[in-house]
């Protein structure tokens, strides 16, 4: 924790004093309205004001315990001599929002950025949990660049059903396939719903939420333990309280976000992502987060830095265990200690220590859950980036979640022009498809869906499922839930709706997937490719937006390969407000 020799900031050095330190009419207004809720005058005496950016919402079930977490942060802020002020921001619930929570990630990031900048805060604590609440808050905070600590809400307790572990998301995919194949009764399906999610917290597989909570810890903006403590574990509250304390200390230390979110920190995160077998969604989110803080990250960095690294973590969806087991095994510090030789150990973190110092004492209490580097769970498991005439700007695949036998595969394309076309035909017994085919889904990218929905892991045709087949090669410009699995090529760029080559693929074409060679190829000559025109008659699965956020998003969203941020949001505006308020 903080060095007692660290100089304390003088009141006039604090940003919040531009509001609360004034002796004039405006100072009266700034203080008086806050005092109305029972705040004594001495809270405005030049102590750091810490904004607690809360994504609590009953519409975001994964974050529904955040009032408790926020109270713990407040205690920590008071203990360290600060003044906490909690504020809500747009909360993105993965399961309820339509058409997809990802459509609103950038909108929420704007809310976060402007809420922080416009208000009298010196430091910020970000409360994050469900998938998109993490990148949206980090992106927004990065564009302001105040001292910032991230606190994740923590995973749920393990799902348990009829003596078996049931992983959130992952169990849904397999059970819904069993219902479609006629091997699971609907009554059992309904019963499992109550058993899968039985406590506060976010998905307890190594899905996107757990991945992003791990990224928060690996980047150094969260405290050690951030990724793994269950939401209902007392240590989660301790972590929140310590984050409150640290936010105050970081203001005095002038430890701003840009001092933590360095190129080295992102490289640590990319390598950790491989070691945990994390979600492909992290590729898009990390690139977008880096873009807000001035770090140039590309999809090729993921392949170059980490594709040779093994996956050490035996967690669903790639493996067997759940986040509760991960916690008991020692959590992320154990993983990072195993790959310490690949990390920038001198990277500074939110607790004032380096990553190397944070992981030095980590001990593995569950070697079947977190396997050693010398005998990993899966070899060469980092994200692979594929290029070729089908994805000139890249596509990604998660080898740890794929079927090894399908990593080199040539198949006949069965094309679905959009998600409606897919739903209309996939259950048709007359659909000309078998397990050797390659399923192609178009118009599900950032502009095309819009919002780049998690539909890339297309359910297989029932007639294939009935033969006991559980995986086929699938290609799209969509994303995939971090809880999902399969030989699924995602984020194909440019997307079909932006004129990418995916748009010209036709049923009956041959597609060659070669993951070891990093190639994805449509088997046509250049002349044949040039002669094709996109099937525009069926590219519109929805009415193009003419107003509001959806129009702004479609007009300005960039490709998946550059983080799918809005073009005018990339970069930072700092913490200065443009004009006086009165
Ligand atoms: Fe919120 Fe999975 S639905 S983390």
Give a description of the structure.
The protein has 582 residues and is α/β, with parallel strands linked by helices. Among the domains are: 11-157 and 203-300, Response regulator (Rossmann fold); 384-542, Glucose Oxidase, domain 1 (3-Layer(bba) Sandwich), CATH 3.50.30. Helix content is 33%, strand content 11%. It has 20 helices and 14 strands. The chain has helices at residues 17-20, 25-35, 66-79, 105-118, 133-142, 170-181, 186-196, 208-219, 234-253, 257-260, 263-276, 281-293, 299-306, 323-329, 332-338, 355-359, 419-425, 462-465, 526-531, 548-556; strands at residues 49-54, 83-88, 123-128, 148-152, 159-161, 164-166, 384-386, 395-397, 408-416, 438-441, 473-476, 488-489, 510-514, 519-522. The chain has a six-stranded mixed β-sheet. Strand 9 (408-416), helix 17 (419-425) and strand 10 form a beta-alpha-beta unit. The mean pLDDT is 94. It binds FE2/S2 (inorganic) cluster. Residues 62, 94-95, 130-131, 168, 202-203, 207, 209 line the site of FE2/S2 (inorganic) cluster.
CATH first level of the domain at 11-157 and 203-300: which class?
Alpha Beta
The small molecules bound here are: FE2/S2 (inorganic) cluster
Let me know the CATH homologous superfamily of the domain at 11-157 and 203-300: Response regulator
Mean pLDDT: 94
Distance between the termini: 40 Å
Spatial ordering of strands, largest sheet = 12-11-10-9-13-14
The general outline is globular
- Care to count the β-strands? 14
Low-confidence stretches: none
Instruction: Indicate the proportion of strand residues.
Output: 5-15%
Helical run tally: 20
